[in-house]
Design goal:
It is a single chain. The protein is of the alpha/beta class. It has a six-stranded mixed beta sheet with strand order 3-2-4-1-5-6, with helices on both faces.
Length: about 160
């Protein structure tokens, strides 16, 4: 069962007054909407969407949330920024899942953090390089290594069409 998805934000504008203020491009918005539809069709609803507070991840998370049922919750997590500590994030998620063991969580963040999170949460021996809007779908059990079920990106969507 996929209960944890790690996602990189959609394509963002290359320049803004500060990195955390870079918005999604039109292509980024379209790609995220397609990924939201695919994720819902493949794995159903997610209870929680946790996102970095940066503009592009917040926009990505809001687009993902739009395809989820009304009970899904969006939380901005200040520790989901690119330079975050993956072991601390795993401890945080493990503690959360100890109180809600059936919860399904989507994490929306940045490179290189998303790659390091996949390595931290799974037995996957590499840190995959994520393209914008790419997903890693994981069967995860707290305080254990999860199983990477699928890496999926927008190029894969084109192959399905």
């Amino acid at each position: 069962m996929v209960n944890l998805v790690i996602m990189r934000h959609g394509e963002a504008a290359p320049i803004a007054s500060a990195d955390k203020l870079r918005p999604l491009t039109t292509k980024g918005i379209d790609d995220v909407k397609q990924m939201a539809t695919w994720l819902y069709k493949q794995y159903g609803s997610f209870d929680y969407i946790w996102a970095s507070p940066y503009l592009r991840t917040k926009q990505t998370a809001e687009l993902m949330l739009a395809k989820q049922p009304n009970y899904s919750q969006l939380n901005l997590i200040s520790d989901l920024v690119p330079e975050a500590d993956v072991a601390m994030l795993q401890s945080y998620l493990d503690a959360f899942l100890a109180t809600k063991p059936d919860a399904k969580v989507l994490l929306v963040s940045h490179m290189p953090l998303v790659s390091f999170l996949v390595a931290q949460f799974t037995d996957y021996s590499q840190t995959p390089v994520f393209s914008p809007a790419q997903l890693a779908c994981i069967d995860y059990k707290p305080q254990q290594r999860g199983q990477l079920v699928k890496l999926f990106n927008t190029a894969d969507l084109a192959l399905l069409s």
